[in-house]
Amino acid sequence: MTRASWRTRIGFILAAVGSAVGIGNVWRFPWLTAENGGAAFLLLYLLFVVLVGVPGLLGEFVIGRRARSDPIGAFAKLGGKNWRPMGGIALLASVVVLSFYSVVGGWILRYLLGSATGAYFAAPQQFFAAIDYGLGAVAFHVLFLSLTAAVVYAGVDRGIELATTIMVPGILVLLVGLAAWASSLPNAAGGYGFYLSIDWGYLQANFLDVAAAAAGQALFTLSVGAGVMLTYASYLDEDRSLAADGTIIAGLNTLVGLLAGLVIFPVLFSIGVQPGQGGPGALFISLAGAFADLPYSRVIGVTFFGVVTLAALSSAISLFEVPVAYLVDEWDVSRPRATAGVGTLFLVTGGVAALSPNLFTLLADTVANLALTVGLLGFLLFDGWVLGRVALEEYESGAGPLARTLGRPWLYAIAVVLPVFLAFTGLSSVTTTLGVSVPAVGLLLGAVLAVGVAVVVLRRPESVF
Ligand code: PHE
Questions:
Q1: Structural domain tally of the chain?
Q2: Could you tell which of 97, 171, 252, 314 is best to mutate to test the pocket of ligand 1, judged by most ligand atoms within 8 Å of the CB?
Q3: What is the pLDDT of residues 59-76, one digit of tens each?
Q4: Is 4 inside a domain boundary?
Q5: CA-CA distance, 456 to 188, in Å (whole number)?
Q6: Does 131 fall in a domain?
Q7: How far apart are CA 66 and CA 77, in angstroms?
Q8: What tens digit of pLDDT does each residue of 153-197 get?
Q9: Average pLDDT over residues 299-310
């Protein structure tokens, strides 16, 4: 059987943008910005997208396009059987992320319906408290998961490519419309001021916290570490510039995040809500409250939650595809059967997360970030120290002159700088979770040591160093 592939280059780019643009952009990003001092956060975030996110994304693309296989198969093909578990970690990361993501997807569908019927207008606070966990949450998780599965079932080109080619432009157009509408709200300027002015004092006082949040978001928003981008790149059948594609993908993704902020902050300020308090759920509540108070509540609510639904679905599709690709590539299972099997798995994992707030929080806050970090660390060490020259060759294939000159610096960055950085943030989140406090210097030493040991163990002759 011939392997699935994208029909067009734009199709691949839009599918990848669809994966990147998600709840992370329209919900997590504005919320983190609000919580971390407005534009101070924005600045660091942009820096990390360029310095960490894009190089990491290319690290995944290179492995996927070279191997033309699912993550586990890709490692086995290019590095030997011993590398299979590393692909397994990415696979696990995709399962962890979709397990809570699908629950949030269910909430969003609820808000979409609630906007049409006006269900949350009278009491936004109580509405969220009534839908967040429990059997209702399970039911809407199942609905969201079924929509996701239907697209994956239809195939790479006739399902994912077709759906995202419609969804991504839809997201952009609707968001631009919403941002234009938001600019006409009373006190919109207050929102822009908060969002776009830099508070240097805040940044200085909280540098490490803001940086950690910005780095985590830069990885999450570009969907790296879970094998999603590797799998999508494995469906490429001609060699165009991965660097150019990666830059376009990151650029569009950032644009959507910025646009979402240009909608959300004027809305919050127009009804006098100070953003940044009360955690992630609060954003849902205060936005819903704001829509209820503004004219044309239903139209605005449906449009906004419609955008969030499209964004969430196109990301969920990419996460669902990872285990499906594994079953299809490694076990020769047909796509329909693989979709059914993977759907059953998520039915259970997401269902449990929808019933247990503790498990949900553990997955969403800690396990997911850690799994993405470890997953990406594995990809990058593999690129730098096992593939080495082969990775560079794959990067250069189809690349233009500018991208070529950046090839070597890119490889050095993903082989040395980024792994130390990822090990540092990973260690820092582990120690924070365990409640032990280690000074930053200690974490850095630990990170350097860990990467050093890994390099000594992994290094192959093809490595460029
Ligand atoms: N990038 C998606 C978002 O911003 C989340 C995601 C993470 C998707 C990892 C796939 C893999 O919502």
A1: 1
A2: 97
A3: 999 999 999 999 999 999
A4: no
A5: 55
A6: yes
A7: 10
A8: 999 999 999 999 999 999 999 999 999 999 999 999 999 988 888
A9: 97
